[in-house]
Amino acid sequence: MVEKRIQPLARDAMAYVLAGGRGSRLKELTDRRAKPAVYFGGKTRIIDFALSNALNSGIRRIGVATQYKAHSLIRHMQRGWNFLRPERNESFDILPASQRVSETQWYEGTADAVYQNIDIIEPYGPEYMVILAGDHIYKMDYEWMLQQHVDSGADVTIGCLEVPRMEAVGFGVMHVDEKDQIIDFVEKPADPPGIPGNPDFALASMGIYVFHTKFLIDCLRRDAADPNSSRDFGKDIIPDIVKNGKAIAHRFTQSCVRSDFEREAYWRDVGTVDAYWQANIDLTAVVPELDIYDKSWPIWTYAEITPPAKFVHDDEDRRGSAVSSVVAGDCIISGATLSNSLLFTGVRANSYSKLEGAVVLPSVKIGRRAQLKNVVIDHGVTIPEGLVVGEDPELDGKRFRRTENGICLITQTMIDKLDI
Fold this sequence. Notes:
This is Glucose-1-phosphate adenylyltransferase. It is an enzyme of class 2 (transferase). Homotetramer. InterPro entries: ADP-Glc_PPase, ADP_Glu_pyroP_CS, GlgC_bac, GlmU/GlgC-like_hexapep, NTP_transferase_dom, Nucleotide-diphossugar_trans, Trimer_LpxA-like_sf. It catalyses: alpha-D-glucose 1-phosphate + ATP + H(+) = ADP-alpha-D-glucose + diphosphate. Strands 1, 4, 5, 6, 8, 9, 10, 11 and 12 form a 9-stranded mixed beta sheet that branches. The protein starts with 12 loop residues before the first strand and ends with a helix. By secondary structure, the protein is an alpha/beta fold. The chain is 21% helix and 28% strand. β2 (39-40) and β3 (44-45) form a beta hairpin. The longest helix is centred in the middle third of the chain and has 12 residues, at 213-224. The radius of gyration is 23 Å and the shape is globular. 47% of the residues are buried. The protein folds into 2 domains: 9-284, Spore Coat Polysaccharide Biosynthesis Protein SpsA, Chain A (Alpha-Beta Complex); 310-416, Hexapeptide repeat proteins (UDP N-Acetylglucosamine Acyltransferase, domain 1), CATH 2.160.10.10.
């Protein structure tokens, strides 16, 4: 690993977060919001991880490109990310698709989402661009990646995960030489190329790219002039650089931020209901794989002013209690029992109800005697008294969105259709 410079490169960089994705595999969770705006971890949104990584890395210029159902995402960023100040040479730009280049053209791909805002980027004069996906859960110091980019003389440096080779079939995979220079980029290969010296593993793209700004803008302008391009980093820009320039792989393990409690480099794509449920439930472990309590690398977010959580009643069968659970502020656990569950802000769990393996989004009301197991409950849902979920797979599948792993996603529309 290279030594950190005294003068961080991050101060001369701009982070550009691509946050326009729909995230259709999250089903009804993205009916009203983009995937980066989906709640995660009790009080944050998914996008807060990429944004916090940029801020904690020392980057003070940030742009976020939005597109699909962006209102809740934009509102969240306006409330929680409005502290960067232009008088300190800081900036935070929200960049919705606004037909800036053409009156008929929205963002056509990830590269186009940057190209259409070149006139906003250039006046800031960043020397480096850090292109980020806004829909993954991880902690990473981008300064290390910037330093590798400069020291290697790369045209592009690509953040990569080391994954078991046959698990890489759903990723863009880097075929590298012994010096981690990328000699081929293969999108979702049936037979992924292994890593030199470690053939059972492959290098999968994280969707994180570092460029010198001038080089990137030149690439984007050439791409925009190509009528055959799909305007996408993974499909067009990166393969062209791999073929005609110098592309270097940056391994996530070199820049992953870990507290004393984190044993492995943690990165998750919470793009399915099962993965989303699991990553949230993982946080309820005694020593979770992701340490969100690490004050040296805080996850910034919109910090609502809320009263503390409250647990009331202490009768034998009516005791407000929680075991191996995460409970956010403004929750009232009134004679309810929680185990291995995660509750976001403002949840009300009423007497005799039991929750096990429940991920409960903000402002949910859980009626008396409800029995809920292995569920994700969307924002603002009112669970009727006595509802049982998690005991009868066939009935659950008829009423709710039930995954192959038996996780039930519950929305208010589904509740309203129940014949109770």
